[in-house]
Write a structure and sequence with these properties.
The structure holds two protein chains of two kinds. Chain A is mainly alpha-helical. Chain A is built from 21 helices and three strands. Chain B contains twelve helices and nine strands. The chains are: A mainly alpha, B alpha/beta.
Amino acid sequence: MRLFAMIVLLLSLCPAPALLAAEPSISQESITDRSISLPEWKDWRRVFFLEDYNTRIVILGTTLLGMSAGMIGSFALLRKRALMGDALSHATLPGIALAFILATSLGMNGKTLPVLLSGAAISGLLGIASILLIRNLTRLKEDAALGIVLSVFFGAGVALLGIVQQMQTGHAAGLESFIYGKTASMVASDAWLIGSAGLTCMLISIFLYKELTLLCFDEGFAHSRGFPVVFLDMILMGLVVVVTIIGLQAVGLILMISLLVIPPAAARFWTEKIFYLSLVATVLGALSGMIGSAMSAIFPNLPSGAMIVLVATSMFLVSMVFGIPRGILIRKVRRYQLNTKVNRQHLLRSIYEYLEAHRMLAEKQIKPVPVTALYQMRSWSPTALHKIIRRAEQNDLIETVSGDQIRLTPLGLTEAARVVHEHRLWELYLITYADVASSKVDRDADAIEHVLEPEVIAELEALLIQQASSDILASPHTLEIDPGNTDSSVSQSGRPGS
Amino acid sequence: MNTSNSVSPDRQNDTSNAAIPLSVYDLTVAYHRKPVIWDVSFDIPPGKLIGIIGPNGAGKSTLLKAVMDLIPKASGRVQIFGKSYQKNRHRVGYVPQRESVDWDFPVDALDVVTMGLYKEIGWCLPVRKKHKVRAMEALERVGIADYARRQISQLSGGQQQRTFLARALVQNADLYLMDEPFAAVDAATEKAIVQILQEMKESGKTALVIHHDLQTVPEYFDYVILLNMRVIDHGLTADVFTPENLQKTYGGRLTLLEEATETMRRREQSL
């Protein structure tokens, strides 16, 4: 399985289209400049035909970033630690500003990515440490700790950025791009750094796939088996830290959490297996990074973080609505199908019980039933009943004899007999084993019988039917049908067909 | 509290009986300085089914967790077959409470049972066919092999409980610690679990089971431990499972001990 994952991973790398163009001069503009100029044809061509080397490398970097965020995010989400990533990314801002100030005052170039990201990592980790300290030393809950650390660190970062702006030495413009993300300022060496770090994170999580799964599912059991739970938790947190840090430049610290959370959350609509969950999340993350940074290359004044998030969000929405087996649409369809089935079974059972009560089952020809008689048996509205009848007709279960008379087809009779049999099995079970009063049992049985599985039916039969018999069980309670003749009291005792 | 007052259990290490599945000496566990179990000591006999009985909040789960080092002990020590838990953990199978995990997790029943083999498979190595075969056998033993590929949220409560039991069985341990395996399960599951407990006993294994339903205690267990913060009594069911002992265990909820610790906790908080 892991081999397969690695192959997929490598395959998806090979054709990784580079889309992005870097124009360092743009970084001089303010982040508040949002003027959108319609891209010219040469811009489109440059992006989609991957014309220059830098574009290719940068797009490879953001794709790998998206992949690793999707994969690591799957575990973070299942471990319910996603918000930790948000606090972490916000807590990186003061580190970025301080790293710049420190490096510039030491006479180095403060704007190189490794310098800034080291600062980001240190202050991000300090942020996490503060959360843990607040949580463990005070009686505050984790959400309060997260909120405090997130805002305080971010506020401190903004203040430090203000100081940076007033420094004589540094050309500080561009540091703000870490807030919203800006791939335009990314150079090839940055992309290599981001890509290789992302790839390393993915490899680590693939190797620890089994252990991380166990950690996320059942921490206590993992601990009891001797797995170092705290150590594994630290590895997972470390992976989240690395992915967050390398995503700061392209996605920005405000939106980085989305790249960790949205792809796995979207993937969850498509699968019930953790392996496919992380695979789909990886692919969705890759697409987000790839397409998002391409968009930002075409509209260089828009922050690339926003572009990446918008792409991820659109994939999330599609997954949420159309995902199988957990999307909204399929669940609505299933509910509708179940309702239809329940209504059809109610109709068949009503007709059957009417025939039974009127002692018309034994006769050779299947007798028609007046629709008006069915109204009294269930609280059906005329429109609803007609809809149900129409649908049953389409399924060849019943046929209309004349305006107000309907009749079971042979197929319908068989199906009705089965439905009645299962209903009565369940009723009998409730009366015999669950101490439900026989007067109440009809409606109680109703709720469950439609979802009984074949194995349960078999079990019930073994339990309740002594002699081998293909007969339909008699109803264990009085049927509330007026048979229209004198001997109503015996209507439930006879076994029809025998 | 310290353990130096009596014979140092460390010294007993060499002489202690390796046949005793579980020995607990003077175990005290506290959450936020409020003792949950206090000075608990007992040995359990091998090859028996042992029930731990006590009211809610009596520290039954805490006791099991402390035995496995899942929570820190305030004092006391625990021996599994004469050695520390770390050394003998491969001989212990744990069935946690069903509510302790999120059943919406994206795995199926077979995956969960395979988790019982992760330690044996080893770090970084993948699950192989033979492991899946063994997991499947365990699922068959608990009678839900047909549901092996079902996502775990699609299983009934009883099937989920049996999945957890299979995960412990696959390990082939000698001592099983089970946290309320009979809680909210259907009759078929209860029967299946009882039968597996009997099979375990017949093959010389020991099971320590937290149990709630007092009516079934004499039927299911050879030996009981009555617990309410401290051990009220322990011994053969016939000797120990008496109305007086049950009254002591369940009656008089607010004992002096509890009242004292509650006062202590409140004072702590106001500081």
